[in-house]
Amino acid sequence: MKGALFISLLLFWVSLIWARPMQLSHEDDPSSNVVDVMEFGAVADGKTDNFQAFSTAWAKACASTSPSSLVVPPNKLFLLSPVNFTGPCKSPSINVKILGNISAPNEVSMWKGLNVDRWIVFDSIKGLTITGTGQIDGQGSVWWQCRLEKTCLQAPKALYINHCDDFQMNELKIINSGEMHIVIDNSVGVQISSMTITAPDNSPNTDGIHLQGSKQIQILNTVIGTGDDCISIGTNTFNVNITGIVCGPGHGISVGSLGDQGPAAVENIFVSNCTFHNTMNGVRIKTWQGGSGFCKGVTFKDLIMDSSDNPIIIDQYYCGDFNNCTSETSAVKVSDISFMDIRGTLIPRTAINLSCSKSVSCANIRVEMFI
Ligand SMILES: *[C@@H]1O[C@H](CO)[C@@H](O)[C@H](O)[C@H]1NC(C)=O
Ligand SMILES: *[C@@H]1O[C@H](CO)[C@@H](O)[C@H](O)[C@H]1NC(C)=O
Ligand SMILES: *[C@@H]1O[C@H](CO)[C@@H](O)[C@H](O)[C@H]1NC(C)=O
Ligand SMILES: *[C@@H]1O[C@H](CO)[C@@H](O)[C@H](O)[C@H]1NC(C)=O
Ligand SMILES: *[C@@H]1O[C@H](CO)[C@@H](O)[C@H](O)[C@H]1NC(C)=O
Ligand SMILES: *[C@@H]1O[C@H](CO)[C@@H](O)[C@H](O)[C@H]1NC(C)=O
Fold it and tell me: What distance in Å separates the CA atoms of residue 2 and residue 190, rounded to the nearest whole number?
């Protein structure tokens, strides 16, 4: 009897010790470090550049030896010029809480001497979370304009996530990026959820989320409507689960284009429970002639196409915007692709277009579509 009581007390004590770290979230952790940009001189007048304040606050959050948070407070608007928040950090995890709004400069000149290709970069940070109900505005119209006039070739991607393993982002609203809204590059273990991403349907190359060089990725319950792909998947991308996306306007969800930058490698992509409204395409795999490598194990399942011009496409003759490709015999090998339970509400222009290479033809393609 005594022995049993001792053992159950011991178990209780052991379970207390084990349970403690589990109960503490980063927010409750008394040793966590909360860094508010306002304490570093941020000015929320929408005109003052907050590059310095945000950079100094970042340095503090990054140097913390315990989990830390960088806070952008609510009901405020912060102008922010191009910035690269770089790790590695001492802090085992960092939560960037964007509760207020952040806006890019609406002047091309602010990128002078910098990489025009990106606005806000997070690089080499493990355990980064970006959350909050704030809005990130890329002020893209100046860039769309100069691209149309051909006075600029590139435009900034709003959020560029590079080498960030165990990355999470949710709730935020990202609008009007100069180019792609979110790029995930060279990262392992990514979860993006409950986001809203919007830009006008005529804004060039404003993809919602672009993945490349990354694996173990989940994108869920997100609303995306832009001038290009809602989600695009580039090379060296593996194990992606995309579900609960409401897409449109835009060009749909696509794998590619592949094969124009060395051998392609894409495998195990699962897209399910998505709705497409007024999109040019639905789901698509596009590869360049003359490419090599593979794209295999891609499933598109349980999708609703509400007026999409071209719901299902495999195009091994993809040729970019200039349409000046020469005929080539090699191609990216496309295999084990399923389009299952895809429903259309309107008669599309071309319901299914499988344009497979004459030399390296697509293999094991399964299509089930209902109109
Ligand atoms: C922040 O953006 C939201 C839209 O997401 C807007 O309703 C709100 O007025 C903005 N607040 C400020 C302070 O700019
Ligand atoms: C960010 O800055 C670091 C350090 O200067 C640089 O090595 C890295 O390439 C930058 N990252 C991006 C994505 O521009
Ligand atoms: C994809 O994610 C959803 C939502 O978390 C989950 O229910 C589903 O099992 C996942 N599918 C795969 C193939 O991982
Ligand atoms: C399907 O996606 C919608 C968002 O369009 C989401 O609300 C719903 O929970 C998802 N259903 C399942 C079974 O995951
Ligand atoms: C197609 O045109 C673009 C733009 O003029 C050029 O950069 C590219 O090299 C051309 N490609 C071929 C195969 O001629
Ligand atoms: C199918 O796609 C190919 C390759 O892009 C294109 O040349 C062809 O016109 C398309 N067919 C239809 C009927 O849309």
Answer: 50
Closest residue by Cα to atom 3, ligand 3, is 243
Separation of CA 330 and ligand 1 centre (Å): 51
CB-based burial of residue 264 (10 Å sphere; 0-12 exposed, 13-18 middle, 19+ buried)? buried
Range name among 16-25, 36-45, 236-245, 265-274 with the lowest pLDDT average: 16-25
* Confidence at residue 173, expressed as pLDDT on a 0 to 100 scale: 98
Report which residue type is found at 40.
F
Ligand 4 centroid–CA 193 distance in Å is 12
d(CA 51, CA 63): 18
- What's the CA-to-centroid distance between 109 and ligand 4, angstroms? 43
Give the pLDDT band of residue 370 (cuts 50, 70, 90): confident
Atom of ligand 5 nearest to the CA of 324: 1
Residue whose C-alpha is closest to residue 81's, from 61, 60, 102, 59: 102
Residue 284, strand partner residues: 254, 313
Only one residue has tokens 């304009």, namely 145
What pTM does this model have? 0.91
In angstroms, the CA 235 to CA 296 distance is: 12
Q: Under a CB-based contact definition with an 8 Å cutoff, are residues 306 and 338 in contact?
A: no
Computed over its alpha carbons, how large is the radius of gyration of the chain? 23
Q: What are phi and psi of 282, to 5 degrees?
A: -100, -95
Cα gap 136→9, rounded to integer Å: 52
